[in-house]
Amino acid sequence: MNISPVIHKASMKSFDEKLNDLNYWLAQPVVKRLEAVTFLVSQSVDLSVTRIDKTHVVRRKLKP
Question: What kind and span of H or E run contains 36?
Fold first, then answer.
């Protein structure tokens, strides 16, 4: 068995992987997506404290 590398050359300024990432995750089963979200959340949770670190949340007041 021979493994060959897959190469994709693109300019860093014009290359955007957002659409590729979205299509990848939409193609995955719901269980796998939930496992990925759970893994990401578990990385941000401090085990000594049961609350999620919310320092990156931006709160904005709604205009009346």
Answer: helix 30-44
Cβ neighbors of 51 (< 8 A, separation 6 or more) are 45
What six digits make up the tokens of 23?
């299509």
Instruction: Report the half-sphere exposure of 32 (CA within 13 A, side-chain side).
Output: 6
Strands annotated E in 1-64: none
Roughly how many angstroms between the first and final C-alpha of the chain, as a whole number?
Answer: 65
pLDDT tens figures, 2-45: 888 888 788 877 777 888 889 999 999 999 999 999 998 888 77
